[in-house]
């Protein structure tokens, strides 16, 4: 069965759109007819926009911006015009073991919170003047925002924070008919998640294949997802089919966490 969504005439901003989930989500919106702006700090964002535009035939352009820089964020969003959908997807995932006495751990902790939480805050604040009644804000949290794993305190804390932020914004922006939801992906084959998987395997003294098997055993559906596998949930939440869905943290994890 194929379900199609129509976003013709709508403008979508996707942060962290140069690769992984952000790239897949941006491509999905463009395929559905939206004008899409992809934003990221790395140089690959320009190439990502070109690839999506060529593949989908939609109007896709790039903004290169460090979302922890409040002024840069405001400048990047100044000329975007009316914004219908904001996808706050940019984030950093690194290990921060609490008993590691290396000073770099503290720096990494602060950086993760700065990007994942404060960056999302700055982008949302800058985007809201461009959003009218009926706007939608989607925030990429994580299944780890609903549970926890050892060794990733900053990342887990940031993803819990994003769920709280989504719920609060849904209350604040509801009177403007702006819906806000969090998406909580499980294990997706992205550069960041595979790096974390390698760290976890090393800490547990097992091979990466063994750890993948263990993850699959905890899911109702086997295997790791690909970025394209999660994009449909973002389209649904931004569509009229989800007109009454707001303030939710929705897992897409092949049945890993049921709570």
Percent in strands: 5-15%
Q: What's the domain count?
A: 2
Order of helices and strands: EHEHEHEHEHEHHHE
What's the helical proportion of residues? 40-55%
Number of helices: 8
Quantity of strands, as a count: 7
The biggest sheet, with number of strands, parallel, antiparallel or mixed sense and barrel status, is:
7 strands, parallel
Q: Which CATH top level class of the largest domain fits?
A: Alpha Beta
- In the CATH hierarchy, what is the superfamily of the largest domain? NAD(P)-binding Rossmann-like Domain
In CATH, the topology of the largest domain is named Rossmann fold
Give the overall shape: globular
Distance between the termini: 28 Å
Strand order of the largest sheet: 3-2-1-4-5-6-7
Which stretches are low in confidence, meaning pLDDT under 50 for 5 or more residues running?
none
- What is the second-level CATH architecture of the largest domain? 3-Layer(aba) Sandwich
Using only C-alpha atoms, the radius of gyration works out to 18 Å
Average of the residue pLDDT scores: 95
Structure description:
By secondary structure, the chain is of the alpha/beta class. 44% of the residues lie in helices and 14% in strands. A 7-stranded parallel sheet has the order 3-2-1-4-5-6-7, sandwiched between helices. It has helices at 20-31, 44-56, 70-77, 103-127, 153-173, 191-204, 208-217, 227-238, and strands at residues 11-15, 35-40, 60-64, 85-88, 136-140, 179-185, 249-252. The protein has 8 helices and 7 strands, in the order βαβαβαβαβαβαααβ.
């Amino acid at each position: 069965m194929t379900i199609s969504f129509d976003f013709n005439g709508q403008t979508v901003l996707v942060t962290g759109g140069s690769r992984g989930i952000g790239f897949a989500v941006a491509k999905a919106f463009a395929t559905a007819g939206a004008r899409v702006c992809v934003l990221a700090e790395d140089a690959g964002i320009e190439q990502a926009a070109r690839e999506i535009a060529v593949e989908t035939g939609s109007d896709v352009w790039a903004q290169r911006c460090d979302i922890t820089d409040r002024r840069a964020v405001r400048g990047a969003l100044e000329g975007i015009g009316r914004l219908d959908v904001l996808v706050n997807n940019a984030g950093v995932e690194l290990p921060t073991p609490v008993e590691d006495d290396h000073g770099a751990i503290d720096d990494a902790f602060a950086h993760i919170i700065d990007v994942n939480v404060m960056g999302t805050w700055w982008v949302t604040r800058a985007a809201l003047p461009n959003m009218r009644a009926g706007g939608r804000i989607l925030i990429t949290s994580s299944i780890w925002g609903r549970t926890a794993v050892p060794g990733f305190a900053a990342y887990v804390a940031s993803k819990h924070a994003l769920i709280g932020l989504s719920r609060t914004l849904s209350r604040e922006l509801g009177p403007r008919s702006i819906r806000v939801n969090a998406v909580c992906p499980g294990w997706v084959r992205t550069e960041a998640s595979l790096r974390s998987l390698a760290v976890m395997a090393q800490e547990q003294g097992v091979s990466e294949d063994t750890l993948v098997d263990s993850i699959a055993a905890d899911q109702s559906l086997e295997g790791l997802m690909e970025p394209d596998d999660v994009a449909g949930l973002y389209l649904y939440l931004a569509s009229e089919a989800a007109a009454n869905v707001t303030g939710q943290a929705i897992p897409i994890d092949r049945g890993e966490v049921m709570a």
